């Protein structure tokens, strides 16, 4: 979970982002929506390394020019649904993530719109509603949340609360007849995740977990390269997601609210991204957990986790996450045919960078394709909206979140026992995945 509301009581809406700006963004922010789609031809038309092409040849073919974004703006926006036909979302929780990322993301959405707010702070909710043109009658508290069942404007909810609250509000939303987009981690445990999945299935409603990395173009290209063996078979992946946690007292450092420390919060990116890139599930994990003695931040949750995962293909993953070091958000995939590729930064909201390197004789040739940029939260919102409109299963459904919880619990067990932990085999690792995003490479 990247943010919440209860511990951000002093937050105010982003200054200057009013309704007029929102409407302008709705028309302008989407103008680059088709640029990254051209990358499909980059991988499909480029010959494999074994074909004798250099790395410069294989990843530069059909990439959009550096000024493609400006050219796309001149050509006009792609088709989008009129407001009355878009999927209406209620945002549950108005913390930093909701205010600074999710609400602005609606400005570039083609299929989704914000229609309701759920908050424990009425004054804040009223300010946000005024900025985004949301009717005052569509402001709810956590206590009267269940009344959303009587509001036809609301098709789905986006839950942006502390991890421990995900289960409650997912189940309440499903019972109210609304689809659910839930921030990650999905819950505090695999058992909670199972109950969330059951509640949505019983209600006939869709459940999607907000794994934004799986919808982001740079990471999707890395996935494509790995699964297509573009540089050979990926044998090792190294990943790191670290940061220096703030002062004691924040909800992320309380086990009852967060479920754990760095692992479920930022380490989850390493875990989920490696599964996404390889397209298979680990069969064994080994882990070490460490917290600096005497650091008051880590009385309840862990500071650092180092773990390895073994996959059926023979691929090895080495991952590091920590709340006690300077930030690093990167990964690198090492293949067996003289090349590597990865992202640095890999998990940020913006300005992600993909790079690749290939040996050519005694030279090491490096490339960093210029791919442009898309709003990751817009991609999530639009995918969920399209799945509702077309009655399809989201690409990252509840089962995807459950699998991460199963693996995280094995990581904790390995650290506790000092022994490797074997995982139950999944015959078809992608069996629980739903419809691929429209911009599939």
TrEMBL record:
InterPro entries reported in the protein's UniProt record: Gfo/Idh/MocA-like_OxRdtase_C (IPR004104), Gfo/Idh/MocA-like_OxRdtase_N (IPR000683), Gfo/Idh/MocA_domain (IPR050984), Glc-Fru_OxRdtase_bac (IPR008354), NAD(P)-bd_dom_sf (IPR036291), TAT_signal (IPR006311)
Species annotation: Mucilaginibacter phyllosphaerae
UniProt entry keywords in alphabetical sequence: Oxidoreductase
PROSITE patterns cross-referenced by the UniProt entry: TAT
Protein name from the UniProt record: Dehydrogenase
UniProt keyword Signal, yes or no: no
Pfam families reported for this sequence: GFO_IDH_MocA, GFO_IDH_MocA_C
GO molecular function: nucleotide binding; oxidoreductase activity
């Amino acid at each position: 979970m990247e943010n919440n509301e209860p511990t951000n009581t002093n937050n105010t809406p982003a200054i200057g982002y009013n309704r007029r700006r929102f409407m302008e963004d709705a028309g302008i922010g989407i103008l680059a929506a088709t640029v990254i789609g051209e990358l499909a031809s980059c991988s499909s038309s480029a010959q494999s390394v074994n074909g004798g092409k250099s790395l410069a040849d294989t990843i530069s073919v059909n990439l959009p020019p550096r000024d493609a974004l400006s050219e796309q703006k001149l050509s006009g926006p792609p088709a989008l649904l009129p407001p009355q036909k878009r999927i209406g979302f209620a945002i549950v929780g108005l913390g930093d993530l909701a205010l600074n990322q999710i609400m602005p993301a609606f400005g570039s959405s083609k299929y989704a719109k914000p229609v309701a707010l759920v908050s424990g702070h009425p004054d804040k909710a009223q300010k946000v509603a005024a900025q985004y043109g949301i009717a005052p009658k569509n402001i709810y508290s956590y206590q009267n949340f269940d009344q959303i069942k009587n509001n036809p404007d609301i098709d789905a909810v986006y839950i942006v609360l502390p991890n421990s609250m995900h289960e409650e509000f997912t189940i309440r939303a499903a019972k109210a007849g609304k689809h659910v987009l839930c921030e990650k981690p999905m819950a505090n445990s695999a058992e909670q995740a199972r109950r969330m999945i059951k509640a949505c299935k019983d209600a006939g409603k869709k459940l999607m977990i907000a794994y934004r990395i799986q919808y982001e173009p740079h990471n999707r290209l890395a996935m494509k390269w790995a699964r297509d063996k573009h540089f050979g078979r990926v044998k090792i992946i190294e990943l790191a997601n670290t940061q220096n946690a703030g002062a004691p007292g924040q909800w992320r450092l309380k086990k009852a609210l967060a479920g754990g420390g760095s692992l479920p919060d930022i380490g989850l990116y390493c875990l989920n991204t490696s599964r996404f890139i390889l397209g298979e599930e680990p069969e064994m994990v080994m882990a070490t957990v460490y917290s600096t003695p005497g650091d008051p931040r880590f009385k309840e949750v862990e500071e650092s986790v180092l773990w390895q995962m073994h996959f059926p293909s023979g691929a090895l993953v080495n991952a590091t996450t920590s709340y006690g070091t300077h930030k690093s958000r990167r990964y690198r995939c090492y293949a067996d045919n003289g090349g590597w590729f990865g992202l640095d930064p890999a998990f940020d909201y913006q300005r992600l960078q993909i790079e690749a390197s290939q040996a050519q004789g005694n030279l090491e040739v490096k490339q960093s394709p210029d791919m442009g940029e898309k709003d990751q939260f817009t991609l999530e919102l639009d995918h969920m909206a399209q799945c509702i409109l077309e009655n399809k299963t989201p690409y990252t459904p509840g089962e995807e979140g459950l699998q991460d919880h199963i693996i995280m619990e094995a990581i904790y067990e390995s650290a506790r026992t000092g022994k490797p932990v074997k995982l139950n085999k999944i015959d078809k690792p992608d069996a629980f995945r739903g419809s691929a995003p429209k911009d599939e490479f």
